[in-house]
Write a structure and sequence with these properties.
Blueprint lengths: L4 H13 L1 H6 L1 E2 L11 H23 L9 H5 L13 E4 L3 E4 L2 E2 H7 L11 H10 L1 E2 L2 H14 L4 H8 L7 H12 L4 H7 L8 H27 L13 H9 L4 H13 L8 H10 L5 H12 L7 H16 L5 H13 L17 H13 L4 H20 L10 H10 L8 H23 L11 H11 L1
Parallel strand pairs: 1-5
Antiparallel strand pairs: 2-3, 3-4
Helix pairs in contact: 6-21, 7-11, 8-9, 9-11, 9-15, 10-11, 11-12, 11-21, 12-13, 13-18, 13-21, 14-15, 14-21, 15-21, 16-20, 17-19, 18-20
């Protein structure tokens, strides 16, 4: 339920002024039947309607051109090409990410929280991503309970991880655990039995919720194995998704629980064109099950130009402190930034492939820090970087977006509350991203999206084409 009737009234008023939100988000009234608390029942009602919607778009607008492809786009990693259907979120270059039409500040205001004025519960965002509806607190509690009931990891998964050297990168161990979970794929079993393609979404739903429920246990096991002598902490049946993840890692302070709820929520989805989301979608388009698809996505997330950047940011910030001390001046910081750039390296945590302003995910983390850890030395250093780096990158003239992204801040927050092992940070990102990738995968199956197969060309083809076009 919404926190107050007045808030709901304000939101309705806002929706009346913003047609895009009104069209993409279905606001729930107070409901009481048991089916209203069941996420799968909600999808069973929504899917036929959305299938017809997609058919109508294809029939009426299938030949509409969405833009022109240039040679720069072909050679630049397909950047800027509109080529994917991604229902769960949309990234605007100026406004940032919107989850089913809602900005991060809006999600923080209206999604149910564990406590008054607290951070949104990830389960609430999962409901929103899957249904386009803002859930009530009762619905979120029901989903949280369901996820806990699904959070059972077989011993062979842990044994598969244990077969790796403990020195293996945490992402390697995490992805191995996800691959081992695939043994229990409901989609694979159903496909082998000859399930009709119109029902593909149903075992995909089961796999996806199981995967979302289980990856925190696998991720926590990896952390405790590497950094805490293998002393595993079991799941607490009284805690929500984000708080349980923090608890199993070994962090139980109320502020850290709130941080983990916020972290999982804002890292969950970032439309479909980023490496991990696109990889998950691409692999799933071959009818690979959610475990195989998500494991592939994790391997993309592990790259330094994607999710591994959150590790690189904290390591770089600590290198600044090691060389210049915590009380570094602005002039010293400018000098260190230039030294980094002239050394042929990037300043991690700044710039973005799509965004052209400060990442809203950075901003909400900054607000969290101002509220809970304003005097933290590393946070103060991050604040100085916010002032120093963008003008320098602008001066270089080669960066379209000199502003900080989500990775610029997350490591400092985690470090403050004791999670200091930077090599592990990308695993946290991976757990979060399961919500978005799996939500979209369910809709991929429900809408019957086809095998992804873009056209590629050679340099000779490009040269010949451009000569003819001249």
């Amino acid at each position: 339920m919404f926190r107050s009737v007045s808030l709901l009234s304000k939101l309705r008023s806002r929706l009346g002024q913003q047609p895009s939100l009104k069209d993409s988000v279905r606001w729930l009234q107070i409901q009481s039947s048991s089916s209203d608390l069941d996420l799968r029942s909600q999808l069973e009602e929504l899917i036929p309607e959305q299938q017809e919607r997609l058919k109508k778009i294809k029939a009426e607008h299938g030949k509409v051109q969405l833009g022109n492809i240039t040679v720069d786009m072909v050679l630049g990693g397909m950047r800027g090409m509109t080529g994917l259907l991604w229902q769960t979120s949309l990234l605007d270059p100026d406004e940032g990410i919107r989850f089913r039409g809602l900005s991060i500040p809006e999600c923080q205001k209206i999604l149910p929280a564990a406590k008054p004025e607290g951070e949104p519960l990830p389960e609430g965002l999962l409901w929103l991503l899957l249904t386009g509806k803002v859930p009530s607190k009762e619905q979120v509690d029901a989903l949280s309970k369901e996820l806990r009931s699904r959070a059972v990891v077989p011993d062979f998964v842990y044994k598969a991880i244990d077969a790796l050297p403990v020195t293996s990168h945490p992402m390697t161990q995490f992805a191995t655990g996800v691959m081992a979970l695939q043994v229990q794929s409901e989609f694979q079993k159903a496909y082998e039995k000859g399930i009709h393609k119109s029902k593909y979404w149903e075992p995909t739903y089961e796999d996806s919720l199981n995967l979302i429920a289980r990856v925190p246990l696998v991720a926590a096991y990896v952390y405790r194995r590497i950094y805490k002598d293998g002393q595993v902490i079991p799941l607490d049946d009284s805690l929500d998704y984000g708080a349980n993840f923090s608890h199993m890692l070994g962090f139980d302070s109320p502020k850290m629980l709130e941080l983990m709820r916020l972290y999982v929520t804002i890292h969950s989805d970032h439309e479909g064109g980023n490496v991990s989301a696109h990889t998950g979608h691409l692999v799933a388009s071959a009818l690979s099950d959610p475990y195989l698809s998500f494991a592939a996505a994790l391997n993309g997330l592990a790259g330094p130009l994607h999710g591994l950047a959150n590790q690189e940011v904290l390591l770089w910030i600590k290198s600044v402190v090691d060389e210049c001390g915590e009380n570094i001046t602005v002039d010293q910081l400018k000098e260190y930034v230039w030294k980094t750039l002239k050394g042929g390296k990037v300043v991690p945590g700044f710039g973005h492939g799509v965004l052209r302003k400060t990442d809203p995910r950075y901003t909400c983390q900054r607000e969290f820090a101002l509220k809970h850890l304003p005097d933290d030395p590393l946070f103060q250093l991050v604040s100085k970087l916010y002032e120093v780096v963008p003008p320098i990158l602008t001066e270089l003239g080669k960066v379209k977006n000199p502003w900080p992204n989500v990775d610029a801040h997350s490591g400092v927050l985690l470090n403050h509350f004791g999670l200091t092992e930077a090599r592990y940070f990308t695993v946290l990102f991976g757990v979060s991203r399961s919500l978005g990738i799996c939500s979209q995968l369910i809709w991929d199956r429900a809408l019957g999206l086809p095998l992804e197969r873009p056209k590629s060309v050679t340099m000779e083809w490009l040269e010949d084409y451009c000569k003819k076009a001249a």
